[in-house]
Amino acid sequence: MRLLMSHAMVVVSGTKIAEEIGTSRSEVWRLIQQLRALGVDVAGHPATGYQLRAVPDLLLPEMLAASLKGTIFGAGKQIHHYYKIGSTNAEAMRWAGEGAAEGSVFLAEEQVAGRGRGAHSWHSARSMGIYCSVILRPAMAPSDALIFSLAAGLAVRAAVAEIAPQFVADLKWPNDLLLGGKKFCGILTEMNAEATRVRHLVVGVGINVNQVKFPAELREIATSLRMETGTEWSRVELCAGLLKSLDREYRSLVEDGDARAVIVRRFEESSSSVRGRKVTIEENGGLAGVTEGLDERGFLLVRTAEGLRTVVSGTVRLL
Ligand code: BTN
After folding, report:
1. β-pair type (49-52, 307-311)
2. Which CATH number fits domain 2-52: 1.10.10.10, 3.30.870.10, 3.40.50.300, 1.10.455.10?
């Protein structure tokens, strides 16, 4: 793929490809068939050579690296790209457990076991969305982790607004991003921690970008940027914007003592439901009440018949 991209629109002989990647011409043919099965538009056959007809919007490290210079995801950091994987979060957690550096990035074209919050899965159709997980190693207590997840939501919102300023996403606590009342992005933050110290965090972001339809069970609740805007989006551009934006949020959180309060305030300002909305919370013993903003660690405050309650987890249903 890399070789064809560096000769995009040019016919490259099977022999040259075989020489450059150190394999046989018949193996090249097999690899080209695999690329086609993945949706890459390659013309030609062994006798004529091969030609990449269009530069595909694949989340390859070399497509992102230039934009990430100077960020925690930049030079010297590893960007892992998979055409098909179970879950980028599971993969990142595994690598983090084996000592992978902060700032390592895991991207997939397709996930077959994409994980959502709680017992949910994440629908991850091939090359339609962004499925991205990053490893972070902030020095903090596990009870402070939520703020990183909220900051990731703000980072996605900023990245979308940079490309399409007219589309302002609504944040739904803790980690959903909505357009027109439907969800287009979810964030799953997982961690490995001692009682008082986080060893590593994995922040996983799933963004529905170019989907034009969803399975029946998601149709009423899910949307994509393409479905909302009517145009196809460059996943590479959005992913670069997301990682730059995540870098800004993360640095300010670890470097600036006031950043937590600022994130909480910005989250409140970017959410139509975090204050003054009637809600029910599915977990937490099933409480119902009216939202009253976030506390200093980012937990949701709900005024119930029994008084003010702090919601630390669970799914918020808007009434
Ligand atoms: C949710 O809203 O339930 C969270 C969804 C998080 C999905 C992303 S896609 C990339 C990363 N890998 C996973 O398996 N899950 C997250």
Report:
1. unpaired
2. 1.10.10.10
User: pLDDT of 238-292, one tens digit each?
Assistant: 999 999 999 999 999 999 889 999 999 999 999 999 999 999 998 767 899 999 9
In ligand 1, the atom with minimum distance to the C-alpha of 86 is: 14
The label of the residue with tokens 């990449």 reads: 52
d(CA 250, CA 103): 11
**If you take atom 2 of ligand 1, which residue's CA is the nearest one?**
186
pTM of the model: 0.88
Measured in degrees and rounded to the nearest 5, phi and psi for residue 246 equal -60, -40
* CATH entry 3.30.565.10 includes domain 273-318: no
In the reported structure, the alpha carbon of residue 197 is separated from the centroid of ligand 1 by a whole-number distance in angstroms of: 24
The domain spans of the chain are 2-52, 61-268, 273-318
